[in-house]
Write a structure and sequence with these properties.
Elements lengths: L22 H7 L5 H18 L6 H15 E4 L2 H5 L9 E4 L3 H7 L1 H18 L5 H17 L1
Antiparallel strand pairs: 1-2
């Protein structure tokens, strides 16, 4: 079939052989089963649509979405001093991130946050004088979340 002069090419030659999916592929393609994973995934989609891909994004909306991500992924964990001192004060609590590596892989929130940081820098550069501090706040929040993960 290679010797045909009319330019016809066999489709057999160019069909891709599909491989059997591995366990990792099946885990990545399956629906999110953990509620936190579903929440982080939907927040990531909101970041992409409202901040990264938006033509005229709002710095307040970006900050709100990032604060929601921070509140959902990092919960307060009481320290031993706070547990022994039951005076009702939560001043000695530590913020601990409860996002697992599996959640990071499945939701791709790290990549989304990287894109968000770049988008915030771009929008801050082109923003008016009034919006620049608001974009700076969103940029700092996105960068801090990225370092936590």
């Amino acid at each position: 079939e290679r010797g045909k002069s009319n330019g016809d090419v066999s489709l057999k030659k160019y069909t891709r052989i599909s491989r059997n999916p591995t366990m990792k592929d099946q885990a990545l393609s399956s629906k999110s089963s953990h509620p936190l994973e579903q929440t982080i995934s939907s927040i990531g989609k909101s970041l992409l649509t409202d901040v990264v891909d938006a033509i005229d994004p709002s710095p307040e909306r970006a900050t709100d979405i990032l604060l929601t991500l921070q509140n959902e992924s990092c919960k307060q964990k009481p320290t031993a001093a706070a547990a022994s001192n039951n005076n009702g004060s939560n001043d000695t609590n530590d913020n601990t991130c409860i996002v697992t590596i599996a959640i990071l892989e499945n939701t791709r929130i790290g990549k989304t946050l990287t894109k968000t940081v770049k988008a915030c820098k771009r929008h801050k550069r082109t923003a008016s004088q009034e919006e620049t501090p608001q974009w700076e706040k969103a940029l700092e929040l996105a960068a801090s979340l990225l370092t936590i993960y």
